[in-house]
Amino acid sequence: MWSSNLDNSGTFEGGFLDSTNKTGPDDVKLRRVQTIVPVMIGHLLAANSVDETMIWDIPARMFSIVGIIRHMEETATKMSYDVEDQTGTITALKWLEAEKKTSGLVMQMNVYVNIVGLLREQNEKRHILILRLQPLEDLNELTNHIFEVTYATLKAQAMSKKNKEGQNNESSVMENQESSEDSPYYGMTKDQTLVYKIIHAQNDTESGIERSDIKAKVPKKILQELDTILDFLVSEGHIYTTSTDNHFKTT
Predict the structure, then answer these.
(1) pLDDT averaged over every residue in the chain
(2) How many CA atoms within 13 Å lie on the side-chain side of 59?
(3) Following DSSP, what letter does each residue of 44-89 receive, concatenated?
(4) Reduced to 3 states, what is the DSSP secondary structure of residue 250?
(5) How far is residue 67's CA from residue 86's CA, in Å, rounded to a whole number?
(6) Cα–Cα distances in angstroms (integers) from residue 11 to residues 15, 58, 161, 187, in the given order
(7) Residue 17 has pLDDT above 60, yes or no
(8) CA-only gyration radius of the chain, Å
(9) pLDDT digits (tens, 9 = 90+) for 37-69
(10) Please, are residues 5 and 236 in contact by the beta-carbon 8 Å criterion?
(11) Hey, which of 50, 79, 142, 215 has its CA 20 to 30 A from 166?
């Protein structure tokens, strides 16, 4: 339920609600990259920081909200939506690529949408950088989102209390010690994780890494599946296209 692919399987180990005691900065960064956290807009507005966002004392980076569009505006460079739920209103932005005239994300007013994105701040006003936006097909999705946020709140509070009391169990510590760099990220298969790491290694370059270069680096056994893997990583917000539809960077 809390993995980056929003799987409703109810498996919580290793995701946003992972109780494993990870102390190194690389571990924290890895955990933040992997997860999409279901929240209410009020949580984002009240978060302690944008650069190092803490939700219920747990580091988080990508967020999922469900709200209703109250205002929208398109300019030459971006699409802007004011999205509201019962806890507040926040602006969601999608920057348009230079060669595209429209964003492909034109929605209607007073329509419920699900947004996955990154929390940003400009001129002391917070907004969401959209990674994925889609209208709700069924209002049950709104109810489900509220249940997810409620569960996450209660679970995270219980875990935070347990950690503060120093009651981390030994099995969680051993599991953390035995994890390796080659282990798949939560919510991804081993092949998807491998492709993600290849792209992430080129994040410092201006346009990221090109599709053909990725193909040159992956094992031959997954070449036929590479395009499908890239589509999955883009749709789930793990990576995004840059200068062209064939250049990628990780979020």
Answers:
(1) 77
(2) 16
(3) HHH-S-STT-EETTEE--EEEEEEEEEEEEE-SSEEEEEEEETTEE
(4) strand
(5) 8
(6) 8, 18, 21, 10
(7) no
(8) 19
(9) 899 999 899 887 776 677 766 777 789 999 999
(10) yes
(11) 50
From the CB of residue 247, how many other CB atoms can be counted at a distance below 10 Å? 19
The amino acid at residue 75 is T
| Contact (CB, 8 A) for 54 and 32 | no
Residue 95 clears pLDDT 80, i.e. is over it: yes
Burial class (CB in 10 A: 0-12, 13-18, 19+), 186: buried
The residue among 238, 240, 223, 228 whose CA lies nearest residue 193 is 238
Task: Count CA atoms within 13 Å of residue 85 on its CB side.
Answer: 21
Q: How far apart are CA 185 and CA 247, in angstroms?
A: 22
- Kind of pairing, strands 78-85 and 88-95? antiparallel
75-81 contacts: CB < 8 A, separation 24 or more?
78/103, 79/103, 79/105, 79/106, 81/107, 81/113, 81/133
- 117-132 per-position pLDDT tens digit: 998 888 889 999 999 9
> Which SS3 state, helix, strand or coil, does residue 241 take?
strand
Question: Does residue 23 surpass a pLDDT of 50?
Answer: no
Buried/exposed code over 35-61 (b: 16+ C-beta within 10 A; e: otherwise): bbbbbbbebbeebeeeeebebbebbbb
